[in-house]
Amino acid sequence: MKKKYFGLNLPMLLILAIIVFIATYLGVLSKDLAGGVALMFAIGIILYEIGEKIPFWNTYVGGGLVLAFLGTAVLCYYKVIPEEYVELISSVNSKPMGVLNFFIIMLITGSLLGLNRELMIKSFAGYIPAILGGVVGAAVLGIIGGLFFGVSPANTVLKYVLPVMGGGNGAGAVPLSQIYERVTGDAAANYYGFAISILTIANIFAIIAGGLLNKIGEKNPKLTGDKKTLMRSAPEIGKGEEKFTTQIKDYTGAILMGLTFYQLGRLIADKIWDPLVPSVPIHPFAFMIILVALANGLGIIPGSLRQAAKEVQSFFTKNIVILVMVGVGVETDLHELVTAITIGNVIMALLIVIGAIIGSGLVGHLVGFYFVDSAVTAGLCMANRGGSGDIAVLGAADRMELMSYAQLSSRLGGGIILVIGSILFGSLM
């Protein structure tokens, strides 16, 4: 049987990709969603398939998904993709079209509604301690590294650990820089420029670590589960789980439901939370996670709709993820990364990521989680660039179905870091 590439044989894949590339370089590829998606798939599928076949890379670095991300970043850096189409891909992925948001919404909805209720409640109860364990581990190893390079413990925590563990750029580095300016009187840009550089280095380490942890889990099955759940007791909890059949129209209902949960999360974030607590912004995804979890816990979502949401999620994690990884690559500034690479910064960022892995993995194990899965979600998904970083880390770790926990790290965990930052900036600077 001939090898298929996302349903296409090799000649057909190459013909379709060549047509898209010719249209791109002649400037006739449509500058809309259709053109952007066509180019993203053409680039992404080819890079993905190459990445899946490169020895060592496909085993330890993250395979095709990571090559789709980094390969696209390299293509943009060397201007292989025309600038007008770089802007098109960026607009499709983030704003104004927002495929990235759509992707995350579907993953949150499906992963939470697909969880057994008892399992979901128990795992959420232990997740915040696992996040805090990662933060403590990151701080401890970061401080040890800082001492070797002449960086004080206070500066290590404020300028290295907080940005890395803050939930990304928009939810972490940006508001941290604003808190810094408000507390110290110094310009936010003076903090942000360094913070985003360290975060970018740590993000690369987090992605690579995701691939390594996946391989560790495969070689040591006791350290991980089925890549869909965190709790070691999950098989026992799920034994009596019901099975539901779905109809094609259930998928439409599941998509509308997920999108509505997100809009409700925005409503709470913008109109209720922000006016009450303006100093600690919380992302709408955090409120969305709480709402979907409540809906599942209270049993108000019909079984067929929950099953449909889970199947939609599966489609997105296996197919649409290619688009997202290309979009993330376009928005990754390799120049920014290169300028921040010094021996001290690289080693300190690496130690912070390792500390996050150890801290979240050990605390997660204590509260009943698998070490690998806790380290990936509560650790690495704190130590990356937020939503896009979560996707890259989970893709490398082959754990896309843990997106809800990853988003808890980036959003609620990021909110915790902002609270800590507000206190520490005032007391240590």
Automatic annotation (TrEMBL):
Keyword entries, A-Z: Membrane, Symport, Transmembrane, Transmembrane helix, Transport
GO cellular component: plasma membrane
Pfam families: 2HCT
The keyword Membrane appears for this protein: yes
Transmembrane helix recorded as keyword: yes
Spans traversing the lipid bilayer: 7-27, 33-50, 57-78, 98-115, 127-151, 191-213, 281-303, 315-334, 346-372, 408-428
Coiled coil spans: none
Gene Ontology MF term list: organic anion transmembrane transporter activity; symporter activity
Protein name per the record: 2-hydroxycarboxylate transporter family protein
Species name: Peptoniphilus faecalis
